[in-house]
Amino acid sequence: MATAPIEPPQRLVSSLSGDPESPAGKWLAALPTLVQQQLETWDLTLERVHAPGGRSSLLALVRQKDGTPAALKFPAPGHLHEAEALEIWDGWGAVRLLRTDGTTGALLLERLHGAVSLRSLPEAKAFLEAAGTVRRLWVQPDPQHPFDTLAGRTKEAVESLRWAGPLVPTAAPLIDEAQELRESLPATSDEHFLLHGAFRQGKVLAGDRTPWLAIGPTPVVGERAYDLAALVLDRFEDLMAGSGAATVARRRVAKLADSLEVDRDRLRAWTLYRAVDAGIRESAAGDRRHGELLLEFAAWL
């Protein structure tokens, strides 16, 4: 049992401590107590809190009563239905969910090798393994599923584009195109797959049960090209530093689309949308350089 006070990692504190009266602020203040209570309820022994960790959850490395290693996760408010997605996948391509607490939101997960992600592999091998992993996650959910749809999730995102767009006036044509794509893409797709929602190489960790497993989904239901678009953007800074970067970017779209039997034009469109969305968000948050690189990448498509 853990007896020492539990301190959330500084990265999580910095991300969520803006308004102490907000749901996220209140959750953060209560988090040390929540973790301690969950350790006692599930008879877990704390090894350590994972650091630097993420910006939207706390992860603690623990031991179960029989000594088996596991990971205890507390997602921040607003990160919904991770447990339901993991239950559907049941360890197929994703980390296995061992237990969940509907009251506290706690998830007990199988222990993976957190220091070893697909980003540790050479680029070609990493993309190959990533494609094989994400393919396993694309399953048909029950018609009564609880997950967001792409139309609903991107509607909120496009409102942010309208608000933040004036901060980057030179990106107005790209923003207009991204908004048009957001309207047309969900309406013209007949795919209804359960998607990871935030898939990228850093979200795939080494495991013991199988070599690579996805973590940290923000599940959404829609077409596969949306998930794959984030993979197109992976390591885009490295791509941009090379020669013939624009051609290489378009070739990456074609190669990933063909390897997973996804329409090239739709993958290109979703990649442009996600690049513009991320670029505007980064610029609005103060990282103008990274935001401008994302917008430049979008323009190449």
TrEMBL record:
Keywords: Kinase, Transferase. Signal peptide: none annotated. InterPro entries: Kinase-like_dom_sf (IPR011009), NH2Glyco/OHUrea_AB-resist_kin (IPR006748). SUPFAM superfamilies: Protein kinase-like (PK-like). It holds the Pfam family APH_6_hur. One of its GO terms (biological process) is secondary metabolic process. It comes from the Bacteria. GO terms for molecular function: kinase activity; phosphotransferase activity, alcohol group as acceptor. This is Kinase.
